[in-house]
DNA sequence: AATGAATGAGCCTTCATTCAT
DNA sequence: AATGAATGAAGGCTCATTCAT
């Protein structure tokens, strides 16, 4: 199961959506196409599993962030985690961001828990913000947008990117929704 | 030609990438598949034409922005244009942003003119910024990310969104690359 | 008309059957596809016209051969003509030989006059041959086979090839159908 | 696999190049189009397989010919084999001879082994011939030309045809390249 | 007569999915 | 449970031919 999901990740990463087909994934995983369908009822299910796997990693990091003493530290930790993760396998991350938006998958990938978690962090980092839910959505979009673009450009300097993302995030928080 | 491109836009908008095939586009345009191929050598060419059409509209706006007296006004105008345009046909805009990233099309869609234009605006709005090219790339990614996400969520309040985008943009500029 | 046929010859020669389509021929001829269809009711008619044009050239040579004093000289002249002509535009000749065999064209290209003429020459060159019709068919096949193969190989030495073809022709005549 | 190739042979035989398409072959073979593509990566590969199947049969005969005591007997055996085989399915043989010449397939069908084998036989049958390679090429063309033409004409008398081919072959050898 | 945009049947090929073994 | 051959709907594209101008 896990090896199939990882195979899916690798195929997506190396071949893009063009080459992302069930037969290729099965081959890469070293299992038969029949076995793949034993574990996943269809291609979309496989994609969802992959998305969930990546999301889970970030979710864990977000939980750690919650443990930070200050709100600011929590948000900074979260940004660092996002940057690091997204840039670790930039192609994969970007492609999954796209896949996540497909209407067929929208219902399958539950983002609410994630969003609430981020909202919590935002709330703690900017307690006086008038619309923390909106802000958390915006911040998520900002980070994702910046990091995907950086990945596309082939940037490798994590620290620099992280600094810029922080500038955007805290700049946004400072200027939006001032109580 | 133009009607085929518009048909392509509509198909992409309503059916997504799944249903975006040349036969569907031809049908929607009310022409035969043969005619479509008389004007566009292939599916990708059609996609590129659509991307260029949308890009051109924004490019025109960017030129207007350059005419603004203050740098800040220019940047604000640009943000407004981006928000308005992207939210006019949100699904289409989002899908084209994705399509633009496809390796096969990367070479076809010349983004450099666009980028330079934005960089010019950024330079004027933040003359003391240490890395205007990087900043313009980041800002483009921020705006695109925020607006795409808003479109996905179904937001309709342009003014509110524009305010938030401004917060992010100017917040980023204020905190990054301070001379 | 003639220019369209020549255009057909050139397209066939340079692009092969793959690229031999009516639009390409019209383009090469510098006329519209509509005009092409004004002169030729269809693609096959165009092909037939081309075959006939090439056959006619050889037919003229065959008539000259008939004027030769000795039968042997007549046959030798004919061989020379065949070799020369076939090797002048080898690709075209080979392709036309193939096209000629297509069932759809078999009825359109009247070979009987040609065959009778050759039979006459053979009869004069080998008066004692028991089956001149069969012989002329065989000889035609031999010459065509040898010259097409030579063309395919890229042979350019006309004299050498002609010598070898003579050897085959006269060798065949000497050993077959001895009265 | 073999049944698909045989289906290809039959389609080619009965419908000619016109009707020789992968769907027709699959239908005739009683398999789905998908299965056909599981065994052959493309239409050309199927054609090549068919050519190779037919070539192999002749190659086997050529090996037998090599075992003959006298050179003359070997050559005669080879001629007989060629005549018999080519006239067994004349249409198929002719069409494959044509297909073999298609530029796209030239590289795929290795003829050198075959040619060397024939050259060996020729060398043994006419040890004093000055240019055995040229001669074997010519003889191959002669035989193919004669037998294809006979097939086209609908000849069925194998013995007669074989006699005439022998006349051409040995006549050619006697008169060309005398040491 | 000439033009060439328009047509659409039909071809090659892919790939998600099934099912007998 | 695993296998992988088989399936066939569907999509990209070509090109002979037509017909309004």
From TrEMBL, chains A, B, C, D:
Q: Which keywords belong to this entry?
A: DNA-binding, Transcription, Transcription regulation
UniProt xrefs under Pfam families: TetR_N
Q: Does the keyword Transcription apply?
A: yes
Q: Which residues form the HTH tetR-type domain?
A: 1-58
Task: Provide the transmembrane region boundaries.
Answer: none
Q: Fetch the InterPro entries from UniProt.
A: Homeodomain-like_sf, HTH-type_TetR-like_transc_reg, HTH_TetR
- A GO molecular-function descriptor: DNA-binding transcription factor activity
Annotated region of DNA binding: 21-40
**Protein's recorded name:** Transcriptional regulator TetR family
């Amino acid at each position: 199961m896990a090896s199939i999901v990882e195979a899916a990740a690798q195929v997506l990463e190396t071949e893009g959506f063009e080459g992302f087909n069930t037969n290729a994934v099965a081959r890469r995983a070293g299992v038969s196409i029949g076995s793949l369908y034993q574990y996943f009822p269809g291609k979309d299910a496989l994609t969802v599993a992959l998305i969930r796997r990546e999301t889970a990693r970030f979710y864990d990091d977000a939980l750690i962030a919650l443990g930070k003493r200050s709100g600011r530290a929590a948000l900074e930790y979260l940004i660092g985690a996002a940057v690091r993760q997204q840039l670790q396998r930039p192609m994969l991350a970007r492609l999954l961001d796209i896949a996540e938006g497909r209407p067929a998958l929208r219902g399958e990938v539950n983002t609410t828990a994630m969003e609430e978690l981020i909202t919590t962090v935002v709330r703690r980092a900017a307690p006086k913000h008038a619309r923390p839910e909106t802000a958390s959505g915006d911040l998520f979009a900002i980070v994702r947008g910046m990091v995907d673009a950086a990945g596309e450009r082939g940037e490798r300097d994590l620290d620099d990117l992280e600094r810029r993302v922080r500038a955007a995030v805290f700049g946004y928080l400072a200027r939006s929704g001032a109580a």
